[in-house]
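Let's practice the habit of predicting before peeking. Look at the sequence and jot down your guess about where helices and strands might fall. Then scroll down.
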Amino acid sequence: MPAIEYSKSVPVIAQPDVLVCGTGVAGIGAAVAAARQGASVLAIDRAGFAGGFFTNIIGSAFDGFVYEETGRPVVGGLVFEMLERMGVIAPGSGPGLSFNVNGDFTEVEKHPERLIPRTDPERFKLAADRILTEAGVRLLYHSQVADVTTRSGRVDSVIVSNKSGLVAIKPKVAIDCTGDGDVAAWAGCPYEKAEGVQPMSIHFRVSNVELTFDLRRKCSEVLTRARAAGKIRPYGGPWPATFSGTDIYFNAVRTPGDSTDPDDWTRAEVDGREDAWRMFELWKTELPEFEKAHFFTSGPTAGSRESRRITGDYTLTADDIRTARRQDDVVVLGAWRIDRHPRESSGYHDQPEVPPYDIAYRTLLPQGVENLLVAGRCHSATSEALASSRVTANAMGMGQAAGTAAAMTAHGKLDSVRAVNMPGLQSSLLEQGCILDPANAMQPTGPRK
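Done guessing? Here is the structure:
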């Protein structure tokens, strides 16, 4: 394609110890942890609020938070604090409670005695704003990474686009929490992308209807018939959950798409909204429970499960997960199923359960750059392994580890994020309430309180 040459003098607006790009759950974890360790932190996000999956997509629970067999937490730290701030659990009670894996009624039906680690988008926005600002993080919403400049194997500046135009930020350490690995990719770090990435999804919310176990089955039956008749495109689940008891949030739209391709992402948005409305109209027509239902909202953006996966100093594999292979540099645990959504088929798919497993610090270290970390679904993992490690609780745990390591690097005037003392990092994470020993999750706890 044709190209143009373009040059412009860009003002440097900040030189923080740590720059966090993206304030989804990984970015919140990274920014808060770094700031609490005494670093000056600037966090940017393209939206007008933080929260990522919970707020941009509309999510209801911390997936990956617990080991499914026992209901015991495998990710602690800031995940516990966010649940406390949103009034889900009492302060300090998290480690002793038994939790459901999420709020989907498929799971609630299995273990109705367990507490649901549930939130809602507006509560999450408020809690995120408060925890970030109280930690001393400087926030810049409506600001998107546009480019990266490097010098001598280091991120020199991150170019940001916002209402001031193009501006530059020169951090000592940068943390890529964009989900798509934009900073790492534009810094020239190697990455992989599956030939057929998992499909994207628009989540949507329906009000004036009560979610019951029986209604979930009815919704599924309607979609099965409609798909067989050619009335709707491939869909997932459906996986319904409720925020208030009088509304339902649906994870059901399944649209092939690549969030690093603007055309593809746009098509996924358009098709996803069309599919969401088709489903709602089918339920409205066929199910009396939807007589007074109202299509309340869809997520601001289509969610991506998988795009770029950076090539790190270590790559998490599905075998690591299935065998619960221990890692000397473990910084967060995972326990979510290998939840790999198919692109073309409909309904429910196989989700093999896994034991609690280690996620290594080395998976957060992009090759080729010394002052850059990543956290979240762009970390170094195979496509199959990412189907487990990509979810919200794991992402926040990775962020907390990356933010702590970034602060240690900046304050210690270390030449590289690879020079961080690992026992020191792990000790700091344990002091922050993180969980690094999978044995803690193997014994069941009591019911909700």
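How did you do? The first helix runs from residue 25 to 36.
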